[in-house]
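Reminder to self: tokens first, then the designed residues, so the page reads top to bottom the way the pipeline ran.
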């Protein structure tokens, strides 16, 4: 809990900004602007999925190397991940800028929100390399057991974005009035400043994960290992996001009111998902460290407490969402038609948040061992065998967007059952990336001395 709490607070900070942004857009710029943000979000999350997947591999490799006290290998992971993740960020930014109109057309974006969606998304995508850099540094720090430092810099970034939002939306203090695009520019500026500041901090502290000029002769094996673990994780994250794109496209077919209701209710999803996602990240790191050190028995305790904490928190949020849906939705939108449809979403999907929370516990253990291919397979099953086809079929059979709500709820249940069953089988232990030699205890080298040696060598 002490390790995951700063991560959870960081997630709430990001969600708080997302809420503030939605309030500015929904209350002051109107339903069409909120719909434009809603349409753009799955595209952004799809691309972010690649970066988050690769940095999950970084977290796994760093945590297992750190747990086993293999500090030479830790430095190679840092070098390889830095080159790989920044390269991906630049490549995906270029592709996103080029294909934004085609992607939004494929999502059946309503005509009245298409132009602002294209403009908003193209500006937002410019922040990708900076966001990917922050993902990488956060994963490395968390892999060494430091979940507090990323929180401090995230707090600064969120605070800066929150201040810049109204200034750029409405053109205050001599800044240009950019409307909806002002929120995208605010994100770009704050991410760039936060990344530069965190890099300077890590170099000032002589941190072993501070990015430096990589030793290119040693990058090949590390990049291949990162890709072997990270590619399935990236696919998993992107598959989740692509599932959102498909589902959003189905919702878009029912008109602007349905799109806005889906967008407003999805903000409540973000709150419910935060404990599960951050608990899953903490579980993955702790499982990786203990497996790397050969302490397999501790993993069972991590799973049990993870179920208690993650399940308990999501169950509480579920109760609030189901009991007070209208009050929650009115924070973002005042249109009665949108609120009515959003209430039906929370009554259906909100009742199943606990299944989502339990899924991330088993997935955290499985990912911590390096078996990312398994969690990718279960995600594919949940989204592409259950959610997307069922959403299309039910919404057409019912002739109502509420069919999508039932499909999302069903996919949560399927994810929980498959993930927990695989964890119970114990087969994930075969995928451990760093295995301690039989009968050999992990080396207890002094971390400070080893880190100093690594920095000097670098």
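Designed residues (458 positions):
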């Amino acid at each position: 809990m002490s390790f995951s709490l700063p991560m959870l607070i960081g997630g709430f900070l990001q969600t708080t900004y997302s809420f503030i942004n939605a309030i500015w857009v929904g209350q002051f710029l109107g339903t069409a602007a909120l719909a434009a943000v809603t349409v753009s979000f799955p595209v952004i999350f799809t691309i972010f999925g690649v970066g988050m997947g690769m940095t999950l591999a970084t977290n796994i490799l760093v945590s297992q190397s750190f747990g086993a006290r293999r500090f030479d290998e830790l430095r190679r992971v840092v070098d390889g991940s830095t080159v790989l993740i920044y390269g991906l960020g630049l490549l995906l930014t270029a592709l996103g800028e080029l294909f934004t109109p085609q992607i939004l057309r494929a999502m059946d974006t309503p005509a009245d929100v298409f132009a602002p969606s294209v403009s908003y998304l193209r500006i937002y995508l410019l922040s990708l390399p900076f966001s990917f850099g922050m993902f990488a540094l956060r994963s490395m720090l968390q892999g060494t057991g430091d979940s507090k430092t990323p929180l401090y810099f995230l707090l600064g970034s969120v605070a800066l974005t929150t201040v810049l939002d109204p200034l750029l939306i409405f053109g205050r203090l001599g800044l240009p009035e950019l409307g909806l695009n002002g929120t995208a520019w605010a994100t770009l500026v704050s991410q760039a400043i936060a990344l530069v500041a965190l890099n300077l901090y890590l170099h000032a502290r002589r941190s072993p994960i501070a990015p430096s000029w990589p030793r290119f002769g040693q990058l090949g094996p590390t990049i291949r290992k990162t890709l072997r673990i990270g590619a399935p994780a990236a696919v998993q994250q992107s598959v989740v996001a692509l599932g959102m794109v498909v589902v959003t496209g189905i919702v878009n077919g029912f008109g602007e009111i349905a799109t806005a209701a889906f967008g407003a209710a999805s903000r409540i999803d973000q709150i419910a998902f935060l404990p599960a996602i951050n608990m899953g990240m903490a579980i993955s790191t702790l499982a990786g460290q203990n497996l790397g050190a050969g302490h397999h028995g501790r993993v069972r305790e991590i799973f049990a407490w993870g179920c208690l904490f993650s399940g308990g928190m999501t169950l509480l949020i579920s109760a609030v969402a189901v009991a007070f849906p209208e009050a929650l939705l009115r924070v973002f939108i005042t249109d009665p038609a949108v609120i009515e449809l959003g209430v039906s979403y929370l009554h259906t999907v909100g009742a199943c948040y606990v299944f989502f929370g339990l899924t991330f516990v088993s997935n955290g253990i499985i990912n911590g061992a390096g078996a990312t291919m398994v969690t990718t397979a279960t995600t594919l099953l949940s989204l592409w065998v259950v959610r997307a086809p069922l959403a299309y079929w039910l919404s057409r059979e019912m002739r109502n967007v509420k069919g999508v709500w039932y499909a999302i709820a069903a996919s949560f249940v399927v994810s929980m059952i498959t993930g927990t069953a695989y964890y119970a089988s114990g087969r994930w232990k075969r995928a451990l990336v760093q295995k301690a030699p039989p009968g050999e205890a992990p080396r207890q080298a002094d971390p400070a001395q080893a880190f100093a040696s690594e920095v000097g060598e670098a």
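The CA atoms of residues 287 and 368 lie 5 Å apart.
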